[in-house]
Design goal:
Layout (H helix, E strand, L loop, with lengths): L7 E2 L1 H10 L9 H13 L10 H7 L14 H10 L9 H13 L10 H7 L7 H6 L34 E2 L3
Antiparallel strand pairs: 1-2
Protein name: Peptidoglycan-binding protein
InterPro entries: Peptidoglycan-bd-like, PGBD-like_sf, PGBDSf
């Protein structure tokens, strides 16, 4: 799932940290988790310390919104409504099929992921501009995710679209 939680590192974590006003080292540790929980509580979101699509939208981090099978919440409901399908807030096989069909019909890569480019084309969020779409892509000169020499990566961003900044996510042991 395209979420950020304790134990992950990479460009999306750094972007989240900058927005939360914590040291932006790109590693999601206890300080980031505490700041996120405080933000979530203050803004009426689920206070779980896990940043997902609804938290990203609330923070104005639309470049981090990436909906896919397994995603859920209000952001998914908005997507489903824009696609004209049942709005249960759960991104399942039916939503994936509708996204792929929409993408293919609208000149987008039909990968079934609803990231900023797809959401902008659907006009789901007026806040998603060409600049936001650009920020959601990997910078070819970007450094790899931070990792100390004594840490073993436990996971890489599985199933992220190839050009998405989500492809920079790595897991680490705390």
């Amino acid at each position: 799932m395209s979420i950020l939680k304790k134990g992950l590192a990479g460009t999306p974590v750094k972007i989240l940290q900058e927005k939360l006003g914590v040291p932006a080292d790109g590693r999601f540790g206890p300080q980031t988790e505490e700041a996120l929980k405080a933000y979530q509580k203050e803004h009426g979101l689920g206070t779980d310390g896990i940043a997902g699509p609804d938290t990203f939208a609330s923070l104005g981090l639309y470049e981090l919104v990436l909906l896919k099978v397994g995603s859920s919440g209000e952001t998914v409901k908005k997507l489903q409504s824009a696609l004209g399908i049942a709005t249960d807030g759960k991104f399942g096989a039916g939503t994936a099929k509708a996204v792929k069909t929409y993408q293919a019909a609208n000149g987008l890569e039909a990968d079934g992921f609803a990231g900023p480019a797809t959401l902008a084309k659907l006009a789901v969020f007026t806040e998603i501009t060409p600049a936001v779409i650009s920020k959601s892509q990997i910078d070819p000169g970007a450094a790899p995710a931070p990792q100390a020499p004594d840490e073993t990566p436990v996971a890489e961003a599985a199933e992220a679209p190839p050009k998405s900044i989500w492809a920079t996510i790595k897991g680490f042991f705390s």
